[in-house]
Design goal:
- The complex is a heterodimer of chains A (210) and B (193).
- Chain A is built from nine helices and two strands.
- Chain A has one domain.
- Chain A is mainly α and 210 residues long.
- A two-stranded antiparallel sheet of chain A has the order 1-2.
- Chain A starts with a helix and ends with a helix.
- By secondary structure, chain B is α+β, with helices and mostly antiparallel strands.
- Chain B has one domain.
- In chain B, helix 4 runs parallel beside helix 5.
- The model of chain B has no long low-confidence stretch (mean pLDDT 87).
- The chains are: A mainly alpha (210), B alpha+beta (193).
- Chains A and B meet through helix 4 of A and helix 1 of B.
Amino acid sequence: MKNDLRTVFYRNLWRENPVIRQILGICSALAVTNRLENSLVMGLGLMFVTAFSSFTLSALRNLIPDRIRMIVQTLVIAAYVIIVDIFIKANMPEISTALGPYVGLIITNCIIMGRAEAFARKNTPVISFFDGLFAGIGYTIILLCIALIREILGFGTVFGFNVNFLNFTNWTIMVVPPGAFFMIAIIIWIASGITNRGLKKKESKKEGAI
Amino acid sequence: MKKGYTYTIIFMAVVSIIFTGLLAGVNAAYKKKITKNEETAMKASILASVGINTDGVDVNGVFNDKATEEKLNEVTYYSIMMNSDKTVYAIPFEGAGLWGTIRGFVGVSTDYSSIVGLAFTDQNETPGLGGRIDEDWYKEQFRGASLETVIEYGNDSGLDAITGATSTSNAVLKILNGLMDTTLQELEEADEK
């Protein structure tokens, strides 16, 4: 498998996007996407953690004994997550209350462990860093898409600015987690639809050639 | 890669020490700031509970200027000087909501006859439903509510519960009514003495 920057970018953002393809990190995607601001901070936190934990684990990959590698991965990931948590608490106290326990729960986000196991263990630090970063971006983009629709319909705002010009009644279901279920499902549906259509086109071209 | 037991143990110990050390360092560096944030947030709630605007003002300055901490038995409450001849109390409350504990401060007049305001410091109610108790319209309606009788929702009191959040709405009243029978009563008796 080729592992240059472009493949890694394309793979993490689209073809193997953690949320819509691998269905990872769904717990936080349901919980924090009721407002764009929360999603953005969560996404930035995750980008930071995946990028640096992948980098660190990749740098240590020849030193880590195989049988305890998961313990080391968890330790490194937890350390970065706690740093993010402390940083948000100190500098953005309001967002910290809004995110509640979910920053701490980045530790259990399968995306990070997934990148560490699937990529950082076998690749050099720099490309691992970008792999983690792009996986984080892939996650953030999906979260922001969900949050945009949920915030508009649920609160009538975008990043806290009122956009409810038509004066419609806010949809409570968009504010509570079930709203995110619908949005994630619709986004997965659209993404799979696009991929399938591409595949069909390729197939029909092949058939035409025969 | 296969490594011996000794190596494994030493490696784990070294990695643990490095990362725990790193965290301890970060924690120590930010501890002061976090504690200060928490204190400021609490002071802002106390001021908000008596109806003082806290948006874009120096919360700590205003608080030090106006509030004095007082204590009765176990309860720490604050007396706040609104202007030269008017003082109100900000009294902490705590009680069960639908999902978790609801904490906050209620501002009451010094004769314990009416509420001057309400602020929540801690609540984990359903966002968009019970969580709306933290919205201004809900808190504002308690301003001026009488403490002489039991607080109830309805036309008589002019208080509205939140649609779709009956449990949380009732929990708030239960906490406030409970406060009247306990802390407020104690304070009133202490004042009479």
